[in-house]
Amino acid sequence: MLKGKDILNTAQFSPQELNLIMNTAASFEKQVKDGNIIRNMEGKIVATLFFEPSTRTRLSFETAANRLSARVISVADAKSSSVAKGESLADTIRTVDGYADVIVMRHPMNGSAQIAADNAKHPFINAGDGSGEHPTQALLDIYTIGKEKGALGGQTVTLVGDLKYGRTVHSLSYFMTLYGNKMFFVSPQSLRMPSEITVDLKARGADIEETENLEKALAVSDIVYVTRVQRERFENPSEYEKLKGSYIINRALIDQAKKGITILHPLPRVDEISTDVDDYEGAAYFRQAHNGIYIRMALLALVSGKG
Ligand code: NCD
């Protein structure tokens, strides 16, 4: 079903494809935990091109490739590649497409994923394009919700923080709409979800309430998804300084929230979740980061026809 396909955004997936990805990830998780050597991608080469900083996404893709017995070639820093010499993205991709069987890329420009996919014959996976989308993060987010909550759908979810520049929430909100979840969008006025996204989500049947009142949203939410204010997207550093502490989740706030609330965060956190929340049992963000390995194993294997 996904063989040969590019992964560019979250609106592209059918419910059947999502089921396949979730089931494949669960199967790989079991095999890894059972200590099996998995050879689905033996003889294949995965390229990871990261032209923006990353810890989890790059290392979990590379871990995933290694767990599948593929080999990895990597650019971890734009400064060390020919991009620094002025090479175009299209030319870089055409070249790497001649080396690898799957290409994974993160890039600071919105729309760069589409350009890359258009220039690659092999499957291409978007690992974050500017403030656009981050579909593989959203896939691991819903995998985590399924594991933490035992279900996907019929939930109330608060997305809080930088909804303007946060690509993870752009991607995740499409899945929440698909699964019929109610969403609260909580952000400072100047960091609201872009209107073209809310309009599109509503056309797809989304139930969205925009508010600046976090306490009220948390009182009725099953899940809160916290995001960092995306400093690197601000033209004016003083604007960032003004907004960075807008919403901070601490233990006192969680004690007043709906009982059993699950806390997610794509990480890295700066100060938007206090460390006194970390030992709350519903604080799932490090489990969430770990789940990225199995989702990325599923994606690499499925687009390669090796699921
Ligand atoms: C996110 C990203 O890069 O968009 N990080 C990640 O991939 N887990 C979130 C962020 O940087 O704030």
UniProtKB/TrEMBL annotation:
List the pathway annotation.
Pyrimidine metabolism; UMP biosynthesis via de novo pathway; (S)-dihydroorotate from bicarbonate: step 2/3
Q: List the catalysed reactions.
A: carbamoyl phosphate + L-aspartate = N-carbamoyl-L-aspartate + phosphate + H(+)
Give the enzyme's EC designation.
2.1.3.2
What GO annotations for molecular function exist for this entry? amino acid binding; aspartate carbamoyltransferase activity
Q: Where in this chain does the record put each Aspartate/ornithine carbamoyltransferase Asp/Orn-binding domain? A: 154-302
The Swiss-Prot or TrEMBL record describes its family as follows: Belongs to the aspartate/ornithine carbamoyltransferase superfamily. ATCase family.
Query: What's the stated role of this polypeptide?
Result: Catalyzes the condensation of carbamoyl phosphate and aspartate to form carbamoyl aspartate and inorganic phosphate, the committed step in the de novo pyrimidine nucleotide biosynthesis pathway.
Q: How does it assemble?
A: Heterododecamer (2C3:3R2) of six catalytic PyrB chains organized as two trimers (C3), and six regulatory PyrI chains organized as three dimers (R2).
Q: Which PANTHER family match?
A: ASPARTATE CARBAMOYLTRANSFERASE, ORNITHINE CARBAMOYLTRANSFERASE, MITOCHONDRIAL
What protein name is recorded for this chain? Aspartate carbamoyltransferase
Specify the species. Candidatus Infernicultor aquiphilus
Q: Which gene encodes it?
A: pyrB
